[in-house]
UniProtKB/TrEMBL annotation:
Domain YdbS-like PH: 76-153
TM segment ranges: 53-71
Highest taxon, organism lineage: Bacteria
Matches recorded under InterPro entries: YdbS-like_PH (IPR005182)
UniProt-recorded name of the protein: PH domain-containing protein
Keywords associated with the record: Membrane, Transmembrane, Transmembrane helix
Regions annotated as coiled coil: none
Matching PANTHER family: TRANSMEMBRANE PROTEIN-RELATED, UPF0699 TRANSMEMBRANE PROTEIN YDBS
Originating species: Kineosporia corallincola
Amino acid sequence: MAATQGDVFDVDGVTWTPISPGLARVRRSLLLLSTAAEAAVSAALAFWLSGWFWLGVLGAVIATVWNWWLIGRQIRAWGYAERADDLLIRHGVMFRELVVVPYGRMQFVDVQAGPLDRMFGVAHVQLHTASAGTDARIPGLNAPEAGRLRDRLASRGEARLAGL
């Protein structure tokens, strides 16, 4: 969807960095695992009890196709941009969100990755500020990019905090 004149989510002069498509692979793998489990249960019930449970298998397949498409769209909506004094994070397709985190407000930066994340080479960067309501998260970065961003944000945060 194109930005309109005066769109609050359109920031002039900002080049957005997308997150890794590896996050889509992680989420789609989880989707396929849950669909396989639901389809197996529905198929077993249909075999032993009633043919109506085959509708559960059909429903699982339809929901999987829809969610497969939706995951790709959600991943493409994520982006972040480093500016001189703050970090911008945007996400959302239907319910859009733009978060601006001043470097001087950052207290610490976490990098997290679960087993499936590590298998696909992605990590999540969590920014913590003085107010819990303004914490921000960037999911699905390539692991080297997550480490680079963590170090860069931590050093910028220290520099801005020291200037107070």
